[in-house]
Design a protein that fits this description.
Blueprint lengths: L1 H10 L3 H13 L10 H48 L5 H4 E4 L3 E7 L2 E2 L8 E4 L5 E7 L3 E11 L5 E12 L2 H6 L4 H18 L3 H6 L1 H16 L4 E12 L2 H43 L1 H16 L12 H24 L1
Antiparallel strand pairs: 1-4, 2-3, 2-5, 6-7, 7-8
Helix pairs in contact: 2-3, 6-8, 9-10
Length: 338
Amino acid sequence: MMKDDLELWSSEGSVDTQRTHLSVAMETPLPISSMSNGNSIALQRDDEYRERMLRIRRLTEADTSDKASTFGKVLQYLSIVLVILTAPFSLFICFKVVQEYERAVIFRLGRLLQGGAKGPGIFFILPCIDTYARVDLRTRTYDVPPQEVLTKDSVTVSVDAVVYYRVSNATVSVANVENAHHSTRLLAQTTLRNTMGTRHLHEILSERMTISESMQVQLDEATDAWGIKVERVEIKDVRLPVQLQRAMAAEAEAAREARAKVIAAEGEQKASHALREASEVIGNSPAALQLRYLQTLNTISAEKNSTIVFPLPIDMMTYFMKNSEAKALAAMADVINK
């Protein structure tokens, strides 16, 4: 195939001449003698012109890349000669050092150098034709500023968060995006607003861990093409309007008071049932009442006070009540007899 291309190159002249002939041929309609016999000839000629166009394009690109590579090799040799002539002073410029947590992405004549990022440690660059960019691989912390968000149930809240991320691929972070850190921070703000806008207020207040994990997955997928790894996202604070805070506090207080009343009513009901059972037990056993008196005296005496309680038997009061009733009945009988 390469041999045929070279023969086509040598037989048909320069690339410019071929381009001129090709453009004229593409603009000129193909001659067709008859509709029945000319269709196959037209399709065959069309395929030939397309194949010729692809060959010329490949040869043009190969010629351009060969010229660029040849010019680059010449500059590379000249740079090496310059280093040798200016040695040992040029060594201070050619040798660079990056730390353990850094990587160096080298560009030679504007093209990314093969082999990926260099480091950690010492590496060599050629003066005048090599440039490099340092990339820090340590985890960075971004404090997302408070974002005013309208929730799904039309409540305005202010939410802020913290994003922990690092550079996972130094070459991609330099070659694929202009500023990977700034892009990640802007994307974190947008993702926070979009995520909170699709949630209800009670979900934001009660499901922070779920929301944080969802944001982390979304950011990690979006920044993977930039060579960024989002490690963790945390929701710091959710600020509510003052009026809404007062309304929620009043609602919570009313709910607590209602629960307290219900609990007190249930306690009184249980206490009344217990007192009824106790009265039945004491009514069946008169000695139990006397024992209850003694227990009450023991409880009062344990408090070390000056109160003295004398239990009065109820039977004695019953005796006096019966005598008074008998006297009243006798008086009424005397009045009737008179």
